[in-house]
């Protein structure tokens, strides 16, 4: 029984690690956009703020991972493939924009869609975790993503209005 529990627990850690990597990549993506759109200061400021928040999200996953490593009690049914799919999507996006820098409206549009996807992923993950602290973590992430999507939409509309 203990063996099964610890086996499952490793999977939980793996999911949390993938989620941490997602936040790291999203953060890198936004730092790259900050760098790319330096000449539009208010939008560059938003990219930087958002990038820093994503870094903070990554740190929250790291904390959860560290706590989890000492706790092998809960059995959880989780889907590693969907977490990996999200990570691959973020990586692909990051590599694509590094190859060819998008226009500012396209970058904003991309980020809005990404945040909405992440909100959806975090909501679905929330339901799979039984541990209350994990549920709360994913719920907080979902709320942050929705907040980011809103801020980015506002910026997107401002850019369009300023043309
Ligand atoms: Fe995030
Ligand atoms: Fe976000």
The whole-number mean of residue pLDDT values reads 89
Write out the distinct hetero groups bound to the structure: fe (ii) ion
Tally of distinct domains: 1
Described by strand count, sense and barrel closure, the largest sheet is: none
CATH domain class: Mainly Alpha
Structural class, judged by helices and strands?
A: mainly alpha
Gist of the model:
Helices cover 85% and strands 0% of the residues. By secondary structure, it is mostly helical. The N and C termini lie far apart (64 Å).
What's the SSE blueprint?
Blueprint: H1 2-36, H2 41-68, H3 80-99, H4 104-128, H5 132-161
Helix pairs in contact: 1-2, 1-3, 2-5, 3-4, 4-5
The structure holds fe (ii) ion (2 copies).
Question: What does this entry look like structurally?
Answer:
This protein has 163 residues and is mainly alpha-helical. The chain has one domain (2-161): Ferritin (Up-down Bundle), CATH 1.20.1260.10. Helix content is 85%, strand content 0%. The chain is built from five helices and no strands. It has helices at residues 2-36, 41-68, 80-99, 104-128, 132-161. The chain starts with a helix and ends with a helix. Residues 1-7 have low confidence and may be disordered. Bound molecules: fe (ii) ion (2 copies). One fe (ii) ion (FE2) binds next to α5.
């Amino acid at each position: 029984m203990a063996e099964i529990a610890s086996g499952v627990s490793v999977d939980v850690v793996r999911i949390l690690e993938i989620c941490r990597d997602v936040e790291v990549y999203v953060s890198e993506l936004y730092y790259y956009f900050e760098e790319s759109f330096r000449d539009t200061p208010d939008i560059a400021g938003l990219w930087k703020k958002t990038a820093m928040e994503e870094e903070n999200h990554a740190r929250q996953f790291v904390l959860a991972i560290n706590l989890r490593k000492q706790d092998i009690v809960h059995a959880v049914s989780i889907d590693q493939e969907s977490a990996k799919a999200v990570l691959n999507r973020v990586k692909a996006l990051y590599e694509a924009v590094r190859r060819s820098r998008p226009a500012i409206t396209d970058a904003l549009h991309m980020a809005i869609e990404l945040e909405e996807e992440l909100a959806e992923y975090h909501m679905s993950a929330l339901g799979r975790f039984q541990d209350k602290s994990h549920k709360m973590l994913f719920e907080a992430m979902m709320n942050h993503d929705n907040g980011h999507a809103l801020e980015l939409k506002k910026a997107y509309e401002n850019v369009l209005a300023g043309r």
